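thread: overnight batch results

M.L. [08:02]
morning all. the overnight job finished for the chain we discussed friday. pasting input first so we're all looking at the same thing
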Amino acid sequence: MALALSILLVITSILMILLVLLHKGKGSGLSDLFGGGISSNYGGSSVVEKNLDRITIVVGGLWFAGVVALGLYLK
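M.L. [08:03]
and the structure it wrote out:
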């Protein structure tokens, strides 16, 4: 059981990193430092951003549930 939860955490952690990096930067933040401000005018549709937000929230919830489940299992 602990192995399955650990694998779930690894997969969801990698997905969270990728999904957060896919988000378009808003404002003059760290993303503008690496050229995000230049390409933000060529961005995609708002439907894609909304779906990306939803997927990120779901994966984040799965990650959180995995952390709590593993913590309770190992306790």
